[in-house]
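Known limitations

Structure tokens in this collection are predictions and should be treated as such. Users comparing against experimental data should check residue numbering before alignment. To illustrate the layout, the record for Serine-threonine/tyrosine-protein kinase catalytic domain-containing protein is reproduced below. The input appears on top and the generated tokens appear beneath it.
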Amino acid sequence: SSESKQGTREFLNELSVISSITHHNLVKLHGCCVDGGQKMLVYNYLENNSLARTLFGMFNQISIFIRTLNRW
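Generated tokens:
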């Protein structure tokens, strides 16, 4: 349908913008794969666990630090 084609075009346009952004705190987006209704993103490989574990681990460390500060 024309609606799904427009959605795919918008997705690809956003990917074009996102993939051009570089910053040392961001994972590089290299591209994507669109297969039917499936849309997949291709990022740099992250060593030492997953992005979720890295983020949640960081938040966990911050919350432990805050709890420790609150005890003082």
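For this record: The first strand starts at residue 29 and ends at 35. The chain is about 55% helix and 20% strand. Please report discrepancies through the issue tracker.
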